[in-house]
Write a structure and sequence with these properties.
This protein is an alpha+beta fold. The strands form eight sheets. A seven-stranded mixed β-sheet has the order 4-7-2-1-11-14-13. A five-stranded mixed β-sheet has the order 16-17-18-20-19. Strands 5-6-3-10 form a four-stranded antiparallel β-sheet, with no helix packed on it.
């Protein structure tokens, strides 16, 4: 019996310890599933059998309606005599099964959801599925495995058909033999908590402190990326290890699917994109859910390959996309995966109840992700302050006059609250920053937010949920910080403005609601230079249409300037000169343009005012 490199724990020889088995076979554009060996659902067989089978309406971590059942076809239930039982679809995600005897097998087909065009409730790609029998498969459990109502806790086995030369990357225990991969999970909850990447191997691994980290990549373009991802991730994970007293898991798997969007990169960054091409890109990318989804010992990423041209913005490079999310997703092992309310612990996949503590699950996690990279030397001081200033600015757009943060959290599946969910990453992170500042101030920088969170993590942990209504009190009891309970009441449960200045001075920062900065003047701005321009290519290009005698940048009639070139030239200016590429008369010339500046308004200014306090914040207590 051969064992795959990717299984992080002792391989099991089969499904002897499992009560329920899903046999999965890949197709060109989907997969077939046969569910067998489940305990007979609770039903009155004397009067005939009747029970309900489901796929999830949503899953933990998404905070959105997904309705996986929409992507199931050919659903059938078979009894012990091979007879098909009566099946009736109930809503989007459930099937009522009736007959004279209980079923022994369920059979259905699931779609490759990423390839299905959907207008309403589109499933975020990191929670979605992809099935291609030539390239690979992403098995997110919600889109593959169903369950009988009330049977989410029994142990399960997945019997996965595995093409020759392919491997299953996952944090589940399992074994490989005779062209099949068997994966074992302690429950349906655990099964959905462990996505699987099935493809030809592109993997890498490394140790960080006590944790074995594995990376596995499915690149639809066929590019090998795991080694490059490893080089980038090692530094971030080392920063995590320095931040936490001990990494809370002994293994962790980064699973990444990379979509092929090189055609979009060619359109956008070729130097002279066409309007038709840009419209095509906008329609295509507008529906893509680039990002990641956390799990207890893994996370799954959907990234885009936009090519590698010299005009490519750094933010779109594949490695940068991964790094922007990786620390955040890993830190979810602390919360909500290791510190959570009953609504998450006993998750209801059909009629979910949302917790009011998104400030903790997403806000604190995002705050830690930024702080870890700063304290670990992955961000400069200015980059960190700019990131947090941006979060303050964006967070001020939260509709605090309409509902509080906890109200939004409790109702996040419904409008208008769902529209404000994105603020968990800005306003939520800033809330965590202010909480941390108060804890540090009260304890003279001998204690911080991470110390409080880890104490609560030890008190509760993955297997013991905290009380939803009483958690603010429980948090403050551990934090022992005067005024903190009032902060929660006013600014998290309540609708009062956040006290930026009062809190941030405790870590050595001076906050100004109104401020200004010196900014380079845009030489293509008709209000700042003596010229007129025409905007083309959906805003990506400027064409000079008129030049006056006071024009100061050296631009001429007919010059074409790509805005990305202008931005790059300003960022790379030296000695007061920026070198600006211009298309002129069919040739490319580079103008040496003097950098002129002006003072502009820049709200939410942050400045280090106390070096000692800020230095203490920069270091882990």
């Amino acid at each position: 019996m051969n064992r795959s490199l990717f299984f992080a724990a002792l391989a099991l020889a089969g499904s002897a310890f499992a009560q329920s088995v899903y046999r999965v076979e890949l197709k060109a554009d989907g997969a077939t599933v046969e569910h067998r060996e489940f305990p007979a659902p609770d039903a009155n067989l004397a009067d005939g059998f009747a029970a309900t089978y489901n796929l999830p309406k949503t899953i933990p971590g998404t905070y959105a309606t997904l309705d996986y059942g929409r992507y199931v076809t050919d659903f059938a239930a078979i009894d012990g005599d091979g007879k098909a039982l009566k099946v009736k679809k109930m809503g989007n995600n459930s099937w009522e099964v009736r007959g004279d005897a209980a079923p022994v097998a369920l059979r259905y087909t699931v779609a490759s959801i990423m390839e299905v065009k959907t207008k309403k409730n589109k499933i975020f790609e990191p929670a979605s599925t992809f099935h291609d029998d030539q390239k690979g498969s992403v098995l997110n459990g919600g889109g593959v495995y169903g369950f009988w109502t009330g049977q989410e806790r029994g142990s399960v086995t997945v019997d996965l058909g595995t093409p020759d030369g392919w491997f299953a990357a996952t944090s589940l225990e399992g074994s490989v033999a005779n062209g099949r991969t068997k994966l074992v999970a302690s429950s349906y909850h655990a099964l959905l908590d462990n996505p699987v990447l099935l493809t030809k191997p592109d993997t890498a691994g490394f140790w960080v402190a006590n944790t074995r980290v594995t990376l596995a990549v499915l690149d639809l373009n066929g590019t090998s990326r795991a080694a490059d991802f490893k080089r980038e991730l090692e530094a971030d994970m080392a920063a995590v290890a320095r931040f936490l007293p001990k990494l809370p898991v002994d293994r962790y798997t980064f699973l990444a699917m990379v979509g092929d969007f090189r055609w979009a990169g060619d359109v956008l960054f070729s130097g002279k994109p066409s309007i038709g091409g840009i419209i095509k890109v906008a329609r295509s990318l507008g529906s893509q859910g680039f990002g990641a989804l956390e799990h207890n010992t893994s996370s799954l990423y959907y990234l885009g390959d936009f090519g590698s041209g010299e005009r490519m913005p750094a933010e779109l490079r594949v490695e940068k996309q991964l790094l922007d999310a990786a620390v955040h997703e890993f830190m979810h092992v602390i919360t909500p995966l290791g510190l959570h309310a009953p609504a998450i612990h006993d998750f209801d996949y059909i009629n979910p109840t949302m917790s009011q503590h998104l400030w903790l699950y997403e806000g604190v996690t995002e705050y830690f992700a930024q702080l870890i990279r700063y304290q670990g030397g992955r961000l400069t001081q200015q980059e960190y302050l700019d990131a947090m200033r941006g979060k303050i600015s964006q967070g001020e757009k939260f509709p605090n006059d309409k509902f509080s943060f906890t109200e939004m959290s409790r109702s996040v599946l419904d409008k208008p609250y769902a529209d404000a969910y994105g603020h968990v990453y800005d306003r939520g992170a800033v809330m965590a920053w202010l909480i941390d500042a108060q804890i540090r101030g009260a304890h003279k920088n001998q204690r911080s937010l991470i110390d409080v969170i880890m104490a609560l993590h030890r008190q509760y942990g993955p297997d013991r949920p905290f009380e939803e209504a009483g958690f603010f009190d429980a948090f403050c009891e551990v934090a022992k910080t005067p005024g903190l309970r009032e902060f929660f009441a006013k600014h998290v449960e309540g609708r009062e403005p956040l006290p930026y200045s009062e809190a941030l001075k405790l870590v050595g920062l001076e906050y100004s609601a109104e401020g200004s900065e010196i900014k380079a003047i845009n030489p293509l701005d008709a209000g700042k230079n003596d010229l007129k321009v025409k905007i083309t290519n959906l805003g990506m290009t400027r064409v000079v249409k008129k030049v006056g005698p006071a024009e100061w940048a050296g631009l001429q009639l007919g010059d074409e300037v790509a805005m990305q070139d202008l931005v790059a030239a300003r960022n790379q200016a030296t000695d007061g000169i920026m070198k600006l590429p211009v298309a002129r008369g069919g040739t490319r010339v580079v103008l040496e343009v003097p950098v002129k500046t002006e003072t502009v308004a820049r709200p939410h200014q942050l400045r280090v005012a106390n070096d000692a306090l800020w230095g203490a914040f920069t270091a882990r207590p």
